[in-house]
Structure prediction request, 196 residues.
Amino acid sequence: MTQGPTAAPQRFRKGTLAAIVGLGSAALLLLGVPKEESGRTVTVDFAIDGTAHVEHVSGPQYLKAYRDVVGIPTACDGLTAGIRMGQTYTETQCAALLEAELVRHAEGVMACSPGLALDIPGRDNVRAAAISLAYNIGVAGYCGSTAARRINAGRIREGCDAMLAWDKARVAGVLRPVKGLTARRQRERALCLKDA
Prediction:
């Protein structure tokens, strides 16, 4: 019996989200983060080199800076870095900023999470959930978390469960659970558990 040719590994342009986390995780993130951060629906297409094209379909678009629940200037899909009140963005700028922020967070998460390495099969959902969590709490928060330690130890289900602890924010000086964060952590946990 002869075997057909094996497929060559996909080569994506360095620095694209697809190159860092794989096409499956990149698609999950580029579709999921806008839904989590803004409540909007987008479509995502990938070029052969892994470059993503994100297009708004429906839901709110935050093209003008606003203050989030804890008072931080925010725009587009939960972006806070360098955002100042009064700034306005185009849809194209928001899409580019989204991918750039996801790349930055993905690089950090992948650097501290050998348990999410691309050569470990069946990790697309865990990888996307971990990066979504980091997008919201920061790379340092994720990398120092119980969730990261458990995922790296191969205890995926326990790592997914540990994501639930990150549902609090300091509002008016008091650290308390926030309904939206609790719901988001439940969704990230559910995505993560698809690979458990």
